[in-house]
Every structure is written in C-alpha cells, then in structure tokens.
Design brief:
This protein has 9 helices and 12 strands. A hairpin with a 5-residue loop joins strand 7 and strand 8. Helix 6 runs parallel beside helix 9 and helix 7 packs across helix 8.
Length: about 325
C-alpha cells in the first residue's frame, strides 16, 4: 500500500511533512487540520505544526482553504489547488482523478459529508495502529465508479455504482505455529448523515447486489467470443474477493440511528431483488461506535438475517484474501 510521500523533500522548498500532506489532501479532497494531524502526526500535542505546513503550502499556491460552514470559530478546511493536483499527479504514485476540488465545492453543503467519510477512514487508521495492522492515510479512495450494467455510460446512476469510499485494511492474526497470518479486507463504505431517505439507502444495497452479479457482455463485432465462452463477474478484475459492504450512520441521536437501522433492515428483508444476493456481507454501524470501539468489535448489525450486532462483517473469513 502506498505511503503518502511523492516528491523529493527539497522540491519546492517543502519539508517532509509538506510532501506528505499534498497527496493526502489530493486523495481525500477536504480535510481539517485536526484530521491531518491525526493521520500524519498522531503523537503531536496540537495541530500547530500541521497548520504551519499548510500555510507554507498555501503560500506556494499548492493548497487553499474554505471556512467550515458549521464552525462558529471559523475552522478552515483544506484542499489541493489545480497546481497542487498537478504536482501530485506528476509524481506518478497516485492514479490521477478526474474530480478536483474547487473553491465553490469546498464551500458547499457537502463539507460535512466529505469530512464524515474521512472520519470513517481515520477511525480505521487509528485502530490499525493500536492493533499492529496496516491501514494508512491513503488506504481509502473516495467515489470510485463501478459499472453495473452494459450500455450507454450516459445513464449515470443506472450504469454505475459509486461507493462513498473503497477502503483496504490488512489485518494480522497470530497462528498456532507462532507465525502471523495477514489478511486483506476490502470494504465498500457508505456514509449516511441522516440526510438520505431510507428508501434511497436501500436502493444502494440493490446496486451492490447488481454489481456482485454483473457480468459484462462482449461487444458485438469480429472479436465476439463463441456462445458459451467463459465470462466472469466484473468485480473479479478489480478485487480478489467481493468487498464487504459497511454502512456507517451519523448525524442524529443514537436512538434515531437505531431506528434508521431497523427501517433499513425491514426494507432489505422485503426486497425480493436482494434475496439472491443474501450472501453479501453487508452491515450497519455508527461513526461513533467505529471511533470508540474500532473495526473488530461487535458493533455491526447485519442488513439481512440475524439482527444482533456482530463482528462477523469485519472479521477475517474464508472470503478474505491472504497476503502472506
């Protein structure tokens, strides 16, 4: 998994920390100084050093900031400028992204959703450090498009599944012979801040079920394979096993979030389209529980089946992928 360092530390007169900040901002679009501190300098007693580096980057035109809409104290949220994006992309370590944060987007009502997505990733990073696992500042990727049907790409939501983030985590467990087993866990993550209707959230589950079954059809023409030729589901070209689906709720009281969980389970149970995909590993938790208890506590309520919170969704299993 890549580390957040791309340019020679002497380039553009930036410190090593400055070099680390740029790709993290590029990947995650919008971050507060506190989030950057926890990601890159978790032992720091304050955000002062990170903020100083952000000012240096700002002075060189590589980053800019927008005031957080919900902050009375004028908290700044940081993002890479067009020049900063070019600097990161020129390093060749991160795949270029078509989406770039703009001044208007940084100041929009999507601020809190973007920050919540990054808080979710940060929770995984912090608990990976505590457990001796691997999940770093660049190990989740926002809004990666996955095709779920053939046809015209202009169909938008009908043609593509776009998780809020795809997160990768390597979990290490001891084995009986004194060695360790390293397992790669991949998650499709959705953040709901109590702003999305339950029906729409349930429709996202249906989109994941469609993606699990989607097998691209060969294009018509001279290169078309013979009837009955071998075909595979599209996800197999990207993932060694189908990612687990984690729905993370926030933005309301615990009792309200519990009710949303119950309503989502009821809609999922009544949706015949989900039943052929009942083997999907999909569960719901809250951002607060993830922060406090970490990813391997019994904090996940399965979307289908037994309603008891469990750690099964996050636990390494036969569907996880060994990396050692």
């Amino acid at each position: 998994m890549p580390r957040p360092r791309f340019l020679d530390p002497t380039d553009r007169g930036l410190s090593q920390l400055g070099q680390e900040i740029l790709p993290v901002l590029y990947r995650h679009r919008l971050l507060a100084a506190g989030q950057l501190t926890q990601l890159l300098r978790p032992a720091a007693a304050s955000t002062r050093y990170i903020r100083r580096q952000l000012e240096v980057l700002h002075g060189r035109g590589l980053v800019d900031a927008s005031v957080r809409r919900t902050s009375r104290a004028g908290e700044l949220l940081w993002y890479t400028t067009a020049l900063g994006c070019e600097v990161v992309e020129s390093g060749g370590e991160l795949a270029p992204r078509a989406y770039r944060m703009t001044e208007d987007a940084a100041a929009s009502q999507l601020q809190e959703h973007t920050l919540a997505v990054n808080d979710m990733g940060l929770a995984f990073v912090q608990h990976a450090r505590r457990l001796g696992d691997e999940c770093g500042p660049l190990d989740w990727d926002p809004e990666v498009a996955h095709r779920v049907r053939d046809g015209d790409s202009r169909l938008g939501d009908e043609a593509f599944l776009v998780p809020d983030s795809v997160l990768r985590y390597i979990h290490t467990t001891p084995t009986g012979d004194g060695s360790q087993q390293r397992m790669l866990l991949t998650f499709f993550c959705e953040i709901d801040r109590a702003t999305m209707s339950i029906a729409r959230l349930a429709a996202k589950l249906h989109a994941y079920a469609r993606y699990a079954r989607y097998t691209p059809q060969p294009a018509l023409g001279r290169g078309r394979p013979k009837a009955g030729g071998y075909r595979r589901e599209a996800w197999r070209a990207r993932y060694p096993s189908f990612p687990r689906i984690l729905l993370v709720l926030d933005g309301a009281s615990p009792s309200q979030l519990a009710k949303r969980t119950d309503d989502l389970r009821a809609l999922a149970a009544a949706d015949a389209r989900l039943q052929p995909a009942a083997d999907l590993q999909a569960g719901v938790t809250t951002l607060e529980q993830l922060r406090i208890h970490g990813p391997f506590a019994p904090i996940v309520t399965p979307v289908l089946g037994n309603p008891e919170p469990t750690d099964v969704l996050l636990r390494p299993s036969a569907t996880a992928t060994s990396v050692a």
